[in-house]
Design brief:
42% of the residues lie in helices and 16% in strands. The protein is an alpha/beta fold and 330 residues long. Strands 7-6-8-5-9 form a five-stranded mixed sheet. A four-stranded antiparallel sheet has the order 3-10-4-11. The longest helix is centred in the C-terminal third of the chain and has 20 residues, at 236-255. The termini are far apart.
Length: 330
């Protein structure tokens, strides 16, 4: 018995340091912005990268959704990573600095978002009437919510930065498309991304009022991946496998966009899409797949200016794990 206990004590540190054998990653709000995750899943890239390091690891991709949902999953421990836009990430980075210390892993895409409508009276945001509602993936923390606050400051001043908040309604992109095109709901506009934007613009009655690029003054990160510091520290190989798999997924997309489109078409999200339509999106020079953060500090500085976050980062690297610090970001 004494020998057994002694052996158990010797083994205890090793067992305590054992890495996870399943890494859980939500697939995000859907669309081209999360294509790298779809490629990672279909090509089993996490498993392949982990195997190179002698780690038996399985990636579990969860079919959930918007920025608020994935943040809740991360906070509850239901996910190890979360994919969303910079505003959702910066919000959770700021709020967990004293405990979980959620940090950025890497960017995934830089893609514009488009504010679409069928309502004849809507020529710009200033034309919104009390009965109008804009579908966004999450009120307050999504990219559209934040950039409409940026636009509100330009139009009404800092004191009224939340001017457009009451017009927003949380809907996932597929539901937003249905609501806008049906004309039977309260939704009169939808701030969306490819390929949902292209699906809406097939309807000749749909117009684009503005884009995120117009409001931001240039391209910006659309989707990114982030994780808690505890996972990063306790699972260095699993973390490295996910980061390498993400880069491999992005490299695959950039090297062969037709093959990437075919992966998308074979996935659950690909139903109802045609290869030519996806190729048009993937060949758009404004649709870029990269791990380099872009304009993340624009979001952070704005959110600090209006009090959405308490801590203002001095540089983008302050919000990201060291592995990506060498990237050309801003």
């Amino acid at each position: 018995m004494k020998r057994f206990l002694f052996a158990a004590l010797l083994l205890a540190p090793t067992l305590a340091q054992a890495e996870v054998d399943v890494v859980k990653i939500p697939k995000g709000a859907g669309g081209v912005g999360f294509l790298a995750l779809t490629v990672m899943e279909e090509k089993k890239l996490v498993e392949a990268e982990a195997s190179k390091m002698g780690l038996h690891l399985k990636a579990e991709y969860i079919l959930l959704g918007g920025p608020a949902v994935v943040n809740d999953m991360l906070l509850s421990g239901a996910a190890h990573f979360a994919p969303a836009g910079p505003p959702a990430f910066i919000t959770i980075w700021d709020r967990t600095r004293a405990n979980m210390k959620v940090m950025g892993v890497a960017a995934m895409t830089s893609i514009p978002m488009y504010l679409n409508t069928k309502a004849p009276h809507l020529k710009s945001l200033t034309d919104l009437a009390p009965t109008d509602k804009i579908a966004v993936t999450a009120v307050k923390v999504s990219i559209p919510a934040i950039i409409m606050q940026m636009q509100a400051i330009k139009e009404f001043g800092k004191a009224d930065y939340a001017h457009y908040d009451p017009y927003t309604v949380s809907l996932q992109h597929p539901e937003g498309v249905i609501a806008l095109l049906s004309g039977k709901s309260e939704i009169t506009a939808h701030f969306t991304s490819p390929p949902f934007h292209q699906r809406e613009r097939r309807d000749p009655a749909v117009r684009t009022i503005t884009t995120s690029n117009e409001i931001m003054g240039g391209p910006s990160t659309f989707t990114m991946l982030y994780a808690p510091t505890k996972f990063y520290e306790e699972n260095p190989k699993a973390y490295a496998a996910v980061l390498k798999a993400l880069q491999a997924g992005i490299d695959f997309i950039n090297a062969d966009k037709k093959a990437a489109a075919e992966v998308f078409l074979k996935s659950d999200e690909g139903r109802g899409w045609k290869l030519d339509d996806l190729m048009e999106i993937l060949n758009d020079p404004d649709v870029r797949f990269t791990t380099s953060p872009e304009s993340v500090m624009k979001y952070a500085n704005f959110m600090a200016d209006v009090g959405s976050i308490k801590q203002r980062p001095a540089k983008w690297q302050e919000m990201f794990f060291p592995d990506i610090h060498g990237a050309k970001g801003d």
